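Working notes for the structural subgroup meeting. M.R. asked for a predicted model of this chain before we commit to crystallization trials. I am recording the input and output together here so anyone reviewing the notebook later can reproduce the run.

Input as submitted:
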Amino acid sequence: MIQATQIATNRYAPAGAGAIRLYGNDLAQGLTLTQLVQQVCLRAAAAQEAQSVIKMNMMAAGSQKLDEAADWLEKIIAGTADWAKAKEFLVDTMKISENSLPPSLRDEKNRLYYPYQIQAAKALQDKMNMLSQTQQEDMIDLQTSVNRRDVAYSTASGVVRTIGQSMSENAQNFTR
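Returned structure, recorded in token form:
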């Protein structure tokens, strides 16, 4: 009897939680062992391909967020940022706690207040560093997914190649 097998879709999800079902009795019916191996490999490759696309989209969104954050950081350091809009970006988009941000970038005399600029810039820089680390981890996940996909396709093509060689050898044996 063939049991269902799953692969995890990312390093945080164990098989079963957010996993992809590779095969079960429904797939195995009427297939030879080599056909079953080939089908499992193709399903695994397709699943990894889908995960790669999702990961690339997540990375693109993260890169865009980092670009926006870099623009705001530059404005905060230069003192040209509209603080209401900057604060909205920092709290809503970057998810920085409002308590860790200064009340303004200016003092009571409406002059740029350097300690407030530093406080805001540091909070944003810390968040950007975390996001950048996540981007690097996502890149590693993407490379792992692409490698797994390549192995699955390679295994599937190896099965086809082996079947072809077997058939060729059988045909040569009949002609002798």
